[in-house]
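hi! just following up on the protien thing from before. the input was this:
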Amino acid sequence: MPMRASIDIGSNTILLLAGSFSNDGFNEAISESRVTSLGKGLDRTGKFDPTSIEDSKQAFKEYVKILKKVDIKPSEVIVTATEASRVASNSDELLGFVEKKYGFKVQIISGEGEAYYTSLGVVKGSKIASDSAIIMDIGGASTEFIRVRTNPFSIKETISLPMGSVRATDWLQEGIYDQKFEAIKEKFDIDSFKTEHLICVAGSMTALGGMIKGLTSFDKDEIQGAKISMSEFDNFLKSILKCDAEELKKQYPFLGKRAPYIQGGAIVGKTLADILGVKTFEISTLGLRYGTIFSGGIDERFVR
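and the predicted 3d structure came back as:
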């Protein structure tokens, strides 16, 4: 079967997925992640950090080589960019570069598109028993809540909050986290997503799932579908807040460059879960790059 590939340019990571489809479903061949922190300092400067741009260019350079091994050309890859690219005034320094240098066609998608393809990836790649579900996607610069109907798949309601693991880390360091969150609460109707069971997707929550399980290397088969009680999550958050990034990286080597932002991501998860009355988190290792690869392309209504 022909191979298909997708890349998700997020606010903290750039993710690559490739595989093929058969009667048994999607057969994953490649799954790669590079932490480049494009959302770092974004609220303060309105721009991508120069170091993050260079790290991102390096990620694409590596991905070209990886894709070549499975005979996929950059022009054939579905490449999406999300919140950080929607906001950064200098996003073309990266997005324009990777198109001209390597031939990747990057599409900046809306918050609605991000929610649609993220939830599509979760629902199509998982076995969800109920007819409906609420999904939370904590990225580097934004957090999406998506209420979905699982069968047939449809989006019932969605919201995109301008807070994520990288932004929260910046706010915590500047001492303005509470102030920023109060402003978000006033602007967005978060209460409409109240639920006792929340499916959590994307880097921060999948990494935290692995940490809570005590993993030293990332094993998505161990993490996919894991259920974590809020009391367990609360206790774990208290324990990691006593550590700095280097200590966390030693305990959980798979964190790598994500280590400086994992506490911020955990605090975002805790803050939002408390408002929504969540009792259980369910972790999903699927998400946006799976949704785009399952769909085979991006609907033009979601392209910015």
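Residues 161 and 184 are 7 Å apart (CA to CA).
The first strand starts at residue 3 and ends at 9.
cheers
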